[in-house]
């Protein structure tokens, strides 16, 4: 019946239906416990009683509007409900649910329920006292029976409860035991692991295990005796680990000392490979970074350490053991010992061998050891805690850097091979880049490279000085003769020759300069390129590189090449022909200086018009060399004249002249003619100056022959012979031996000697003495002192030759005249000296 009511509640999902359901339940219970059974239709109707309150108003409204047909249908449904078994009431209620007059039906149902309620109420009032008596009797019988049953069944339950209590106690004890074992077993397992690690000599994991056991596990089981035994054993184990760690640390220090060179070699090779990869990409920044501000790539620098080396295999455990020593005293001991030993090793590494500068391998070994040392230190710094710190690293690096710079400065100064110095520079750059990659400050190394650059320049200058000397020694000092266009092209490829007239000539052609001109030009370019090689990777700007190259080139030109040219010009075996060729060569080299400027501009990409750009001093160098060569030509020419004049063998006591010029003088004139013919390629002023200088020197030397103190006596015949030689010189001067130099101009070189000889041969003393000091004087260029010296020599000869004829009147008059003229000449000479 209850199931039927729940089914009705499911069919009518509303608050009112719920109320109906509640009323039905109360009614049903009342029927079961209060009233005797009735027919099933009446029971069902009674069960519907409880829904009356909620549907009164609704039924009244429906009654007013329903039709007779609906009312009849509802009556039929109600009769079916009252007369149908409760198991079959579902379809009937379903028909109500499917219809649309739910409220009207509920009103009908409420009215019917009220009617039945009145009947139930009447029936209950009639049977109330009997019902109460029956319930009371029923309760008495049920309580006694129930009590006995409970007593009988409780005995067994008490027994079971006691058994259950014992089981619960056992279970609690088992749980407690499990908890204690769960707490102790990890401690025992950890201690067992510690013993296994100690036996296996895995001290770093053992130290970790010991630390965990002491600080995490043992405090939880401190109440047990075995924990105190373990606590007593831990200090011994820790001391054992400390002793073994110290021993291993010593072995580790020895190992890294042996393998530092290999580690450094690997690191430098990797840095060099990285430079090769980066060289294809433009550099955006070259400034090195400090040790404290490591680059992002520095985090991976540890991976660059050779992990296959024995030192790397050890530091994975030994360094970490040192890192986990908790006692302050032990930590200080490890740190101090390690740092002290590493400082000693650093001093050994930084001490270079005395012959390190002889080969590049010596420098490589030195750098590899240093890089290996500091790569290991950097690795330790970033993989351990407390063993080293930034302050220690900075102090150690500062000490090492100063020592490295001092060693390199000293040994690089010993190097005389420019290729070795260049290789050293490249090695220092790789060395600096490697350490910079690990965060070390390397600015001073690049400053040192600038110093080595100056040394490199000096070494290059010495090398090129030898090259220039060799070129000068190998040159033939003759114009280059080319027989084909290919030969001509080879020369013009080496030297920028621009000569339209020469290019139009047919082969064979004669290029005015000798072979050392293109060779010198090529060597200057090679020197410039060698300087540029050293400037690579020095973190210099284009302007700084250009300035360095120009200064080095100026040193080459003004100091080395100029000195080589000066030495060449002053060599004794260099003759006039060679000097002439040197002047021609320097002229062409001077003209090529603008091409050297263009070459430097091309390789540095810095315009010569840029502010503060150093200019090349090649022009002044070659001008000075040419001027020196010109002076040397004058000197050589005069020396050659002196050599010819040394052959002069005058008979100063000659009575009559020979009738022709002296042989030595004829040879000298022929030499001068051939020499000045070679001067056609010289600049006009040079040839003219050389010719004038030669004639002046010749005239001066001839006069010195007359005035030679060793010549004590002189005859008129000797003067007449001397006059014939002078006529030969004047004839040479009037023949215009050098183009552009007039004969009259060249004859002025001999005017002093000509007037002196004319004065003695004509014996025109009266005119000389009368016109002396006047601008129109015929013998204006005759010096009284010179005339007096020559007259004294003739007077001595006249005195000795006329010793027996002094009584002759003519001879006496002549002797008296000579005395008078000599006296007057002395007076003029003294007055001239007093005037000056």
From TrEMBL:
Record bears the keyword Transport: yes
Renumbered residue ranges of the record's region Disordered: 263-330
Family: Belongs to the SEC15 family.
Annotated Polar residues bias: 267-277, 298-315
All copies of domain Exocyst complex subunit EXOC6/Sec15 C-terminal, residue ranges: 444-793
Pfam families, alphabetized: EXOC6_Sec15_N, Sec15_C
The species this protein was found in: Eptatretus burgeri
UniProt record, GO biological process: Golgi to plasma membrane transport; intracellular protein transport; vesicle tethering involved in exocytosis
Record's protein name: Exocyst complex component
Signal peptide: none
